[in-house]
Each structure stands twice: as C-alpha cells, then as structure tokens.
Write a structure and sequence with these properties.
The chain is of the alpha/beta class. The chain has 13 helices and eleven strands.
C-alpha cells in the first residue's frame, strides 16, 4: 500500500492489461492494423514523464516480471483488475484476453481480479463463452469494446437488442460491473463508435448493473458528465484522464477533474493506470500530491485526503467486494463512499428543487 504524510492508501488499479502485440502475434494480411494499433498506444505513452518511456520493442510485449515489478513492487498497487481487449481481427492469439490474464492471476493469488468480455455480434457462441469464463474465473465484471472490428462490422452499440441479451445474461451470471471503453480512439478504430450516448440507454434499463465508463468519454467530457449525473449507476473510470493528462496537460487535467468532481462526484470515480501504457507509480504519487494549480479553478469542489482514498481504491473495492485493511479506511464514518441509493436520492431531491 502507499503511504504519504502518515496516511495509508489502499490502491485498486481498476483498469490494466497484459498484452502481446509482438509481430509474431500479428494476423497475416492485417499487419498494418496490428502495427498501427500498438504504435498509436506507444505514442500515448509519451504523455507521461520522459523517464517512464519504453522502447517500442519493450512496449509490444512486456514480461510477467516487468508487470509484477511495475505494478506491485514499484507501483504501490494492492489489487489490480484486468480488463481484456481481444482484437482478434489483428492479433492471432488476441491482444489481451481473459485466458491470458487469468493464467497470470492463477500464479499470483490475491493480486488480480479477472474480468471477462463479450461482443454481441458473436451470438449464442459468445454467450456460451461468457458463461464458461465467469465459471472459471469468477468474474464480477466485463470489459466492452464497442468500436472493435469484426468481419465487415466496425463497431456496435449498447442499444442493440442483442447487446441487451448479453447484459441480461451477465446479470443472471452475477456480473455487477460493466466497463465500457468510451474515450480517445486508437487507430484504425472509428471515433464515433466510442460515443457515450448508448451508455445512457443501458444504464436506465439495467439499474442493478454498474456502468464504469473508462476514459470518462474523452474528448466528450461534457456529454459524459451530464449523462453520469442523472444515472446513479454510471461511474467515471479515470484511466487515460490521469495518465494522459496530469503530466502533459495539467490545466486541462484540472478542468476535467473539476467537472467530474462537480457533476459525477468523488463517490463514483475509480483509478486506473491503463498499464501497460503508463506505469502506476508516478500516477499514484502525483495524484496524492495533486491540487488545482490556481484560483482559476475555485468554483470546483476541493479534494481532500478522503477524496483521494476513495478514487484511488475504496470506490473500486466497494464495487468488487474487495476487503480493505482497517488502517486504509476513511478517516470518518460520514465519508463512507455513497451507495447507488444515496445517489438516486440526491438526484430525486435535486429534481424537486
């Protein structure tokens, strides 16, 4: 766990990967897409501090030893949640699959939460695979990639009837958390396929599921905030927001954080390093020390130590029923992370004003 100025922080990295984008894994005939994808990811890494940048060869396929050192030994993380991204059109064995991450989790008990995934275009076969994954890995969450290519299709939407069939089955299987990539595009995917509007429909129709919008809908931050404030079961996943903006765009980062704190609230925000793009160490240390850079941001909510504890781990621990050591709990009972019922009550009270 991370400790600073006598405060202990329980860190849950709720959005990270363990991928293989090496040339040996590229699909024949689609090498340009496989290379372009990982090159685009590598370019995003340049938004972090210079001393954290990797060579493209290292970036394409980090080792298990790299991950364990970067995330746990050096990176302050207590529990990490794997979010799969398959990309089977471009990577023969998948880019970052549940099977691959699950194997690593089995070697390191207690360190990882293994999430599953689904794609409604896979139909009954996809439902069967989801059932098998949940049974094998005990997944309480899924990662959805609405812009992923499949055959001639270049994306799908949560509003699709087939997607609703998968959401219903996910709920029946005990899945509680639906992580949806809605943020900056990666070449060659289509930007419009990452639009956040379909989350609004699904969140209303599935109130017992938590929808964690990864990358907070960037660049559509206003669209996301106004949608998330009315939906008590929509959360802001801060992967990319911290890693991509805190160092490279500090003023824009202050605006994004301020909007999220004002509209969404500290109880519905979760930290994710987006490893392997960025290492968690500098993000966690920087966020614990972070505050608004000037009085220009005085109309936004202030950050407290309890706010940072919630965002860095306690909110995600609540969503995933992860046990938190007593010394890392909040400093006061009144600072307990809010429940969906509390959020719904606030929304209803505001509506009466």
């Amino acid at each position: 766990m991370y400790e600073k100025n006598g405060e202990k922080y329980f860190i849950v990295d709720s959005h990270m990967h363990f991928w293989d984008a090496s040339p040996e894994n590229w699909v024949a005939g689609h090498e340009n897409y496989a290379k372009g994808w990982i090159d685009c990811f590598h370019a995003y890494q340049s938004l972090g501090p210079p001393e954290t940048h990797w060579s493209i060869e290292h970036f394409q396929k980090p080792s298990e030893e790299d991950l364990m050192k970067d995330v746990f030994e050096d990176g302050h993380v207590d529990v990490a949640i794997f979010q799969p991204t398959y990309l089977l059109e471009w990577y023969r064995n998948g880019f970052n699959t549940t099977e691959q991450t699950g194997a690593l989790a089995e070697k390191h008990p207690g360190r990882f939460v293994v999430n599953a995934r689904w794609d409604p275009r896979e139909g009954d076969a996809g439902l069967k695979q989801l059932e098998e994954d949940v049974k094998r890995w005990g997944s309480k969450g899924v990662k959805l990639y609405t812009a992923e290519w499949k055959d001639t299709s270049r994306g799908w939407t949560l509003k699709d009837p087939e997607a609703y069939r998968f959401l219903e089955r996910s709920q029946e299987l005990g899945i509680k958390n639906v992580h949806v990539h809605k943020g900056p595009t990666i070449w060659p995917l289509d930007k419009d396929a990452f639009d956040v509007s379909d989350v609004d429909h699904a969140a209303t129709d599935f109130p017992d599921l938590n929808f964690i919008v990864e990358h907070v809908g960037l660049p559509r931050i206003e669209d996301f905030c106004f949608m998330a404030t009315q939906e008590p079961n929509v959360y802001a996943g801060l992967s990319v927001a911290i890693g991509g903006l805190m160092h490279a765009r500090p003023k824009f980062f202050a605006k994004v954080m301020g909007e999220l704190l004002f509209w969404v609230g500290e109880d519905k925000m979760t930290f994710g390093s987006d490893y392997n793009i960025w290492e968690p160490k500098w993000q966690i240390e920087g966020f614990v020390d972070w505050d608004y850079p000037s009085d220009e941001f005085s109309d936004y909510p202030r950050l407290t130590t309890d706010t940072k504890k919630k965002i860095l781990g306690l909110n995600a621990a609540r969503l995933y029923d992860i046990e938190v050591p007593a010394e890392c709990q909040l400093s006061s009972a009144s600072s307990e992370p809010a429940s969906q019922d509390d959020a719904a009550l606030v929304t209803q009270e505001e509506a009466r004003v």
